[in-house]
Amino acid sequence: MTPEQYVQQKAAASGSSFYYAFLFLAPPRRAAITAFYAFCREVDDVVDEMHDPSVAAMKLQWWRAEVAKAFAGQPEHPVMKALAPIAPAFGIEARHLEAVIEGCQVDLDQTRFLDFAALERYCHLVAGIVGEVAANIFGRTSDATLEYAHKLGLAMQLTNIIRDVGDDARRGRIYLPVNELQRFGVKASEILERKSPWGYSERFEALMRFQAERAHAAYDAALALLPAADREAQKPGLMMANIYRTLLREIEQQHFQVLHQRTSLTPLRKLWIAARTHVQGR
């Protein structure tokens, strides 16, 4: 299997909404975003599939060394063999990859975030930086597009956090800020134990609605920041935004039943949303 085949398989197997946006890109840009996304998946899997934190920490350290080697012209892993040669053409730097690894290190080091400021710093690493790299690959002409990309990354990561409350709880993690749990009178134990009926109390729904409103505000702010000159080039990002925002609305309509299930859209629906965005341009 070639490095290019490896990253393609990694991206397709993830079932991510990102994959459907990639399909509308020209081949060189598609190759770049697919390789970068495969890198993000590899590093993220270190934490998601973690059984021993010390082993996971060593694996992240290995990835740091691999990034350094790849940008020195000596990649070893198939993902870096696919990504490193094309990185300069799309403004992908070692610092971008190092930030993604740092975000995964945060996942290893802590399971709670005291306030939204702390959560936002984490989102910057695991989503804002990803948005920045994606915007560069899609093609941008304005620095304002970077602001849009970071804000959109935040909105999408907040959507992920809302969707994954139950999955994260199974791993002993809560990404909802501690001071906001306290504000709405929701105990961490209620989330971690995922029990009904009090697990879906009015307090919990009010907390989650607050999170959703923040995510919607971030989507609106991102779209307002996108310069008209870059709107055509950034269509793939708009596709992802529309897929994720549709998912968020589905969760809202289900009254945030996220403790025992993981809401998702069908592949056909994701493709339809992507195609509609491609045609309408928004």
Note down, in words, how this protein is organized.
The protein has helices at 3-14, 17-22, 27-48, 53-71, 78-83, 94-109, 116-138, 144-163, 165-170, 178-183, 188-193, 202-225, 235-253, 267-280. The chain is mostly helical. The protein has two domains: 1-109, Orthogonal Bundle (Farnesyl Diphosphate Synthase); 111-282, Farnesyl Diphosphate Synthase, CATH 1.10.600.10. The two termini are 37 Å apart. 42% of the residues are buried. The mean pLDDT is 91.
Mind sketching the topology for me?
Layout lengths: L2 H12 L2 H6 L4 H22 L4 H19 L6 H6 L10 H16 L6 H23 L5 H20 L1 H6 L7 H6 L4 H6 L8 H24 L9 H19 L13 H14 L2
Helix pairs in contact: 1-3, 3-6, 3-7, 4-6, 6-7, 7-8, 8-12, 8-13, 12-13, 13-14
How is this structure best summarized?
With 282 residues, this protein is mainly alpha-helical.
The first-level CATH class name of the largest domain = Mainly Alpha
How many helices in DSSP terms? 14
CATH fold topology of the largest domain = Farnesyl Diphosphate Synthase
Give the structural class: mainly alpha
The CATH architecture category of the largest domain equals Orthogonal Bundle
The shape is: globular
Low-confidence stretches: none
Write the element-wise H/E pattern from the N-terminal end onward. Answer: HHHHHHHHHHHHHH
- Number of DSSP-assigned strands: 0
Query: First CA to last CA: what distance?
Result: 37 Å
**Measured on Cα atoms, how large is the radius of gyration?**
19 Å
Instruction: Specify the biggest β-sheet.
Output: none
The whole-number mean of residue pLDDT values reads 91
Quickly count the domains.
2
